[in-house]
Q: What sequence folds into this?
């Protein structure tokens, strides 16, 4: 074998080693910086890493085949659940209309309401030093003081970085469910009747205050619970898929084997001009890519070019047809 | 009545001639270049005798293509990749005088390859799960087991080590080697680089 051939193989082995570390070990900012420095050394390092990373991300599809263990956990939890009602707060809707990042005081100074418009993104720091990032079309009520730390996610999505205080646990209410922080960074999203909680660091506990959910669900780093149709499903996510899911924090939507229907639904969360899929047969096409959150035209260009779909403007809507 | 949105409007990510940020290069590379790998490997195999150089050549083509694309997104990815490969082979022949000139077998084939229909990305996307399954089946059994335990059962490295009765270091080795083989099978056809010959 030539010396040059050995070189490419070594670079590939190093790239694979980085991915292995990133997959299995706790991964912090120092690791990210170390990886960035390695990548910056040469284009050879970059292409080897990108290529293997993409291959590894492909294998994530295998998790669709996830058998018994998780399924059984899901069905066990399912039995504990009774129908859950969607709570709609009229007050929240009124406040959301006031505008992005606007804080209104209700019921005295102890409660603050934060709201973002469609396409909005705001970071707020609460009285206890905890940081909350609000995504598009979100309403959050907060009651955070010396003795109590309670916020209610009326709707939308928020990413929490909690200042830890074991004496006063930080509680997020989302509909009937309660998420209790045990020292952590986590995401809570409400969408129609669904709730998703995903943990990027530390642990949280998910339950209902009325004890309907008899054994609370404990979520640790990289675990996510989705609650829909009155059932709780716990899944494990990779650091990468969580990063993708939090792409909005940096103004991006990241698609990884995302169906056209899901991609359209995501864009519609952020933009007032709505995308509509006219031909249901196209909804199952899958795509990869990263788009600016308001990059509807970039997205439709890709749909046109890659899937050979037709894009038509009809009033405020953009209709995707074959 | 209905008006068609023009394609060259707006914030198209990969506009020919534009520059890209490093993270855009990654997206461009994964989306535009990697699907060409089987074709690139075919070209390299046909035009280069020393098979042990192929992996190195592929890497170098990718590196050069990305470096150039960051400064200016090429208009036609496929022609750009193949031309880069050809130039690389020619330079190699010139530089390493040991290599007989016939090593670059038939550069006319480049023209033929460029004109041949490229991989249809849409079809590729649909094909991925089937390809992935096939690639997994061809992995060495231990490597396959590590990938499966990680991806399907979500086990940690110590858990996998315990389940398989091997050390954590061996788990790492199976995963890293398996990953390289998996990529070769997913993008190229994989048989030439790490096959039995």
A:
């Amino acid at each position: 074998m030539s010396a040059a051939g050995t070189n490419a193989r070594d670079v590939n082995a190093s790239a694979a080693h980085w991915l292995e570390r990133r997959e299995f070990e706790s991964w912090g900012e120092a690791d990210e910086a170390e990886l960035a420095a390695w990548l910056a050394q040469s284009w050879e390092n970059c292409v080897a890493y990108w290529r293997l990373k993409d291959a590894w991300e492909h294998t994530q599809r295998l998790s669709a085949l996830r058998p018994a263990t998780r399924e059984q956990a899901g069905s066990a939890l399912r039995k504990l659940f009774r129908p859950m009602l969607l709570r709609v707060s009229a007050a929240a809707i009124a406040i959301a209309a006031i505008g992005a990042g606007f804080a209104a005081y209700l019921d005295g100074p102890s409660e603050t309401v934060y709201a973002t418009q469609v396409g909005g993104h705001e970071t707020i720091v609460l009285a206890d030093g905890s940081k909350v990032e609000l995504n598009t079309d979100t309403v959050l009520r907060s009651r955070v003081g010396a003795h109590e730390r309670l916020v209610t996610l009326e709707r939308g999505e928020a990413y929490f970085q909690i200042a830890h205080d074991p004496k006063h646990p930080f509680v997020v209410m989302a509909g009937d469910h309660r998420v209790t922080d045990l020292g952590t960074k986590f995401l809570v999203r409400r969408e129609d009747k669904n709730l998703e909680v995903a943990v990027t660091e530390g642990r949280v506990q998910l339950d209902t205050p009325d004890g309907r959910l008899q054994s609370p669900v404990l979520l640790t780093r990289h675990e996510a619970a989705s609650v829909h149709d009155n059932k709780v499903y716990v899944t494990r996510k990779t650091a990468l898929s969580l990063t993708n899911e939090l792409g909005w924090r940096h103004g991006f939507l990241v698609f990884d084997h995302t169906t056209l229907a899901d991609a359209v639904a995501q864009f519609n969360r952020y933009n007032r001009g709505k995308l509509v899929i006219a031909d249901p047969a196209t909804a199952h096409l899958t795509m990869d890519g990263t788009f600016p959150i308001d990059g509807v035209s970039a997205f439709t260009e890709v749909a046109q070019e890659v899937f050979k779909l037709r894009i038509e403007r009809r009033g405020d809507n953009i209709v995707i047809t074959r | 009545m209905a008006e068609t949105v023009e394609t060259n409007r707006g914030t198209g990510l990969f506009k020919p001639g534009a520059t890209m940020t490093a993270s855009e290069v990654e997206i461009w590379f994964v989306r535009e270049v990697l699907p060409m790998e089987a074709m690139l490997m075919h070209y390299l195999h046909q035009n280069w005798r020393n098979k042990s150089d192929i992996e190195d050549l592929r890497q170098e083509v990718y590196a050069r293509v990305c470096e150039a694309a960051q400064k200016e997104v090429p208009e036609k990815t496929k022609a750009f990749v193949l031309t880069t490969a050809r130039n690389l082979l020619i330079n190699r022949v010139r530089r390493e005088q040991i290599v007989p000139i016939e090593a670059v077998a038939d550069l006319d084939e480049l023209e033929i390859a460029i004109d041949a229909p490229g991989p249809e990305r849409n079809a590729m996307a649909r094909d991925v799960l089937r390809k992935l399954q096939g690639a997994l089946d061809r992995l060495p059994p231990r490597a396959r087991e590590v990938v499966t335990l990680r991806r399907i059962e979500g086990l940690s490295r110590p858990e996998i080590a315990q389940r398989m009765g091997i050390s954590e270091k061996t788990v790492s080795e199976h995963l890293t080697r398996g990953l390289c083989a998996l990529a070769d099978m997913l993008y190229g056809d994989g048989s030439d680089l790490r096959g039995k010959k």
